[in-house]
Design a protein that fits this description.
Blueprint: H1 10-22, E1 29-32, H2 52-58, E2 65-70, E3 73-78, H3 83-89, H4 95-102, E4 106-108, H5 128-137, H6 143-157, H7 162-185, H8 192-205, E5 209-210, E6 215-217, E7 237-241, E8 244-245, E9 255-259, H9 266-285, H10 292-309, H11 317-322, E10 380-383, E11 386-388, H12 391-394, H13 397-402, H14 409-413, E12 420-422, E13 425-429, E14 434-436, H15 445-452
Parallel strand pairs: 3-4
Antiparallel strand pairs: 1-2, 2-3, 5-8, 6-7, 7-9, 10-13, 11-12, 13-14
Helix pairs in contact: 7-8, 9-10
The chain binds glycine and manganese (II) ion (2 copies).
The site of one manganese (II) ion has 4 residues, from loops.
Length: 454
Amino acid sequence: MTAIAPVPTLADTLRARRERLAALINFPVVLWSGQSRSRNFPANTYPFRASSHFLYLAGLPLVQAAIRLDGARLTLYVDESTPAAALWHGPTPSRTELATAMGADAAYPLSELDEHLDGVATLLVQDETTAAAQLTERGLVNPTQDRALADALVQLRLTHDDAAIAEIRKAAQVSVQAHRAGMAATQAGQSEATVRAAMEAVIIAAGMTTAYNSIVTVHGEVLHNEHYHHVLQSGDLLLADVGAEALTGWASDVTRTWPVTGNFSPTQRDLYDLVLAAHDACIEMAQPGVEYRDLHLLASRVLAEGLVDLGILRGAPESLVEQDAHAVFFPHGIGHLLGLDVHDMEDLGDLAGYAPGRTRSDRFGLGFLRLDRPLQAGMVVTIEPGFYQVPAILQDPQNRDRYAAVVNWERLAQFQDVRGIRIEDDVLITSTGCEVLTASLPSQASEIERIVKP
Ligand code: GLY
Ligand code: MN
Ligand code: MN
């Protein structure tokens, strides 16, 4: 009989992560989870999200907790729930139960942490109260060690273990269902908010939350549009960038663009198919060792070629990309790292996104690239090419001048029913190539039309 390998517990996964971290550093580490911010009175708070570095090593989304790591040894610092808190929030697991779940070697009240902060490295959490305490009250400024800790965590979190990938898969599947629901709920005369509600309902019903503020808009040219008041008109394209986050914090990030009526117009279809061709070319090429920057340039070249074929750009595609003419219509990078955050580890600036010695380009067509590293098995990245008609770019006198000879403005005017198209999938790099974790959500125009049509 074949032996069935035991499923690793949360404690097993966290121990393996601590052991990998311990192999990279030789100093103790304290990581705080952070705390929620009040809206107006203390009990009315903004939604709490634990720091991702804490989540990576503590596994549980605890409020006002900290962990100390000494080699592979884990100590949890958290207060027991008070009777008053239990009255309002119900019973919560005891400190001992939490410590057992995460495989901690010891657990103490949070106040005892103050005695154990000498010589520790840390990373600042996002909430200002905890960050201020990290910096001042505790006197925890040790830039050299903190930087070494950041480097080590980047090294670990760049590629994902099986437990992380399983959670990203769960989030991705819920996002796929949310997008199907959004397509099915789309109807002329309804508002963007109605479609957003249908999509987020799926995420909420799955016990998850959104990994970022949803974008559900007929104005896809506003790249991070967070307004939902427009009424859907027949003839509009609706761009939905909506991603679920698992309870454990692991994220997904998915965009589809569909016609409100269920039928792309010929001009919309031309540009949609072009964005899809750029998307598919990148996925075809994604494998270990390939430079992510080259995927961005590949997408840029495919877009430039297609825009020449459609008569919107003039010239040789290679040369158009060198002039950044593609960026007039594709003014962002091809994607980013995905993990415990939607733009994973961008709390550390470009430390995770850019390989040592590399820095952002000041080129219009490359400066927004968020990831410039060779791909490695175990990375999850997004692939998200787009085409947008951004008034601020198209009407900018400098751009009009710079691209006067290469953009056919009269021809472009014939495509005015396309304001923004983006197609975004989550891609796991495997040892031999890649796997699209969101592949069960169709991206072919004809399949999308089928789902949208009543
Ligand atoms: N959802 C944000 C992004 O795609 O980067
Ligand atoms: Mn993205
Ligand atoms: Mn997105």
